[in-house]
Amino acid sequence: MELLNFILLGFQSALQPINLFYCFLGVLLGTLIGVLPGIGPVATISILLPITFKIPAISAIIMLAGIYYGAQYGGSTTSILLNIPGEATTVITCLDGYQMAKQGRAGPALGIAAIGSFIAGTVSLLGLTFLAVPFSEVAVVFGPPEYFSLMILALVILTYLAQGSMLKAVLMALLGLILTYVGTDNITGSQRFTFGFVELSDGFDLVPLVMGLFGISEVLLNVEQAIGQEVLKTRIQNLLPTRQDWAKAAGPILRGTVLGFFLGILPGAGPVISSFVAYTVEKRISRYPEKFGTGVIEGVAAPESANNASAQGAFIPLLTLGVPPNVTMAILFGALMIHGLAPGPLLMKDHPDFFWGVVTSMYLGNFMLVFLNLPLIPLWVKVLKIPYPILFPLIVLFCVVGAYSLNNSASDILVMTGFGIAGYLMKKLKYEGAPLVMAFVLGPMLELNLRRSLIVSDGSFTIFFTRPISAAILIIALVILSLSFLPKLRRKKPDVEETI
Amino acid sequence: MRRAEQITCLFWLVLAAAVCAGSLRLNVGTPSEPGSGFLPFGTGFLLGILALVHLAQVTFRKDEKEEPLLGEVRWKRGACVVAALLIYALLLPRLGYIITTFLFMAVLFSVYERRKWWMVGGASLLVIAVTYLVFHHWLKVQFPVGVFRIG
Question: How many Cα atoms within 13 Å fall on the side-chain side of residue A124?
């Protein structure tokens, strides 16, 4: 009964005209950037983050969340029509989606992607609605050692799942931690690593850092290439799948949803891994695995459902435990903090209208997306024809204005440019940005909880192993770390673009 | 790539040494009373160890043939964007949003190919008008007016 009241409270908040507007804007922008290759939700959320400071916190988070899950819908359009994934999460959709389009079945492929995404997103939201309260109740008993262990686990999983070298991912996570030390020490109030610069006394801001690492660096990489893309010349008709398509796709949608949801909750996994796992599972259990890659509808339905379920499931650890499971959630974590809201078990208790408003807005956003996507596919195809030489100056200008508006200071543009160059070099040298940003966001809490734990235990590190929840979490982290020494296992990971 | 990776490892080592040295100055403390430099020292130490491991891996790796870091890419375009960003950051407080952004957009629109001046100018003016309306009037972002007091 209490849950019903919460849901009603949430809808009351989400249905406010201003929140409906920002929800619509978020999902529209999300679909747009999902469609456009070369700019993803991380870059977009980073770019728009400073703008959201001018609007109410709930509207801001509703919009940013909409961008995130909206991008999962939009990404499939380019995968199916261009064989170019709009997002890393839709890489696997190219395999069968593009083949279906080549066979004149672009309509059903786009249709099942959108409908599967809607079903998965909605089911996943139901999971979020029902699991949020129990998760928060568990999290209330967490003390500093448990939080410290949980953050270590999140970082370990993220680095374990990193593309390529795990060592490089750990180095990036350590760099992220080091960047958090710059500024004022939260406990003693002393200045650390500021080298006498007053501008550094508050440390680095998240916004120029992520804008540089993901926005500017992406532009620098893209302008190096001659971008020419051809939209498949096929008539998009019969978007609604046939009865036969439904019969084939129902199971994959269901399995993709369940897999995606649970992988979304897991720190570090996220929509990319979910889509690959869902595709692999479908291929394994299929009666005709050899046909995968030739244009079977199951190869579109499963990953598209999984990435959406995962995107919605990822909100559980963020909103209830205060631990972001992936880099986009880490930026949303930063956004919440900037708006004066601490993600975690108390968020639901102290700000129920905010918490449930955001959750219920996602139901509305999912409805908007399915109605937005299918009729607007011809428009998205036209958007794809915007040449990159016209598009990239606008992206750069958005980054510049966003960085400047943070503190009305041009030095933030310099910081962003610096991180842009660093991000560019990192990508050239095959270092990932995700562990850095995760560590940067978790760093202050990690340090605070470590120091508090040590003070409580009078300097004994055994506190992390004598408390059962903390010990269990650390044992899981250790098991995952030890798995990394089994090269064969790591080699089996899907070789995908960075989890963004 | 091997040379570039070795240089990167050296960067990690220098960073690790700097962080450790800085932490020692800050007061590392003891486990029962951790100071400001406690975790930074641990992080720097671990970074140094892992950088050494990585350096050894890269140096003794057999396989690979030497690939230049930038290869056959059109790096001049990227350099142009970076230069434009740096100059923009320096000129923005002096010339104000409208003039600096006009010049900035004109450069960026010309990065790929030379276009007709009126097209570049028109597009830049349009972008300024839209962004000024959205950011300044709607979102109340305070743009600098510069020495000419425009904006």
Answer: 35
